[in-house]
Design goal:
Number of helices: 9
Radius of gyration: 19 Å
Distance between the termini: 31 Å
Shape: elongated
Number of strands: 0
CATH superfamily: Phosphate transport system protein phou homolog 2, domain 2
Strand content: under 5%
CATH topology: Methane Monooxygenase Hydroxylase, Chain G, domain 1
Number of domains: 1
CATH class: Mainly Alpha
Mean pLDDT: 82
Largest sheet: none
Length: about 270
């Protein structure tokens, strides 16, 4: 699915519609809230998960819009991404607050506790995806018209492909959360290496380019960070998938890759 199609799919108003049983419980193999004895707890858990799914749709849209604004030099689209960043943060704050409130008041155990903890962690991972989108959008605003020596143009094919890969991973990770699908979550983990290989190839291409022409050194460095940002989106998608496996099977997620954020000067722009 291409970037434009991903944007349309992510912003159609109901990115990952819930499937319901006659009793109103989300369907899915081994759903941790299905058939819960307490309707209050059941509805709380369903609400937490659906807010995480909604947040996932928003951040997928953010990634697609940010990359499109960079490739097409669309300042209006970049500004739209930046204007929606507080909404992403609000989702994360609410998920974190509501999960902690639920744990404090209900004192859940086993499946219920794992689900509440997993949803809170998913919110954090999605918020970080929003941060990567914000950085790419800021870079897009700094660029002028495309030129023959433009580093973004030089690696445009890699940017598009990495956006497709990372957004696809993120979409499947959020869908796995929505549908309690461990198989889909496992597929996301398997695709992480493909994204890493694409990033390494793009980086080599970019380094070869800058060695031939030092005139565009600064935008080349920023382009490198944009590529790295998309690689990090894939890492966060993998982390979301690991939380789904933890929620369903109690399998403890592996330690995530250490984050490599932008240098202070770049992050502040």
């Amino acid at each position: 699915m291409q970037v434009d199609e991903q944007i349309a799919a992510a912003s159609d108003g109901a990115p990952f519609p819930a499937r319901e049983t006659p009793g109103g419980v989300l369907a899915g193999g081994g759903d941790p809230v299905e058939g819960h004895t307490s309707k209050t707890v059941e509805q709380t858990l369903i609400g937490l998960r659906m807010r995480a799914v909604e947040m996932g749709g928003l951040v997928i849209d953010q990634v697609g819009a940010a990359v499109k604004s960079l490739l097409e030099r669309d300042a209006h689209l970049a500004e739209l991404v930046l204007s929606r960043e507080p909404l992403v943060n609000d989702y994360d704050d609410r998920l974190d607050r509501d999960s902690l409130t639920y744990i404090a008041l209900q004192q859940p155990v086993a499946n219920d506790l794992r689900m509440a903890r997993a949803v809170a962690r998913v919110g954090l991972e999605l918020e970080r995806v929003g941060d990567e989108s914000k950085k790419i959008a800021r870079f897009a605003l700094q660029l002028g018209a495309a030129s023959a020596g433009d580093p973004v143009v030089a690696v445009a094919r890699y940017l598009r492909h990495m956006a497709d890969l990372s957004m696809g991973m993120l979409r499947n990770a959020v869908r796995a959360l929505d549908e309690s699908d461990t198989g889909l979550a496992t597929e996301v983990l398997a695709r992480d290496r493909e994204l890493d290989r694409e990033y390494a190839t793009a980086l080599r291409q970019l380094m070869s380019y800058v060695m031939q022409d030092h005139q565009f050194l600064k935008p080349t460095i920023d382009t490198m960070f944009a590529l790295k940002g998309l690689e990090r989106v894939g890492d966060h998608a993998k982390n979301v998938a690991e939380q789904v496996l933890y929620m369903m099977d109690g399998e403890k997620p592996a330690s995530p890759k250490p984050a490599r954020d932008y240098p202070p000067a770049a992050a502040a722009r």
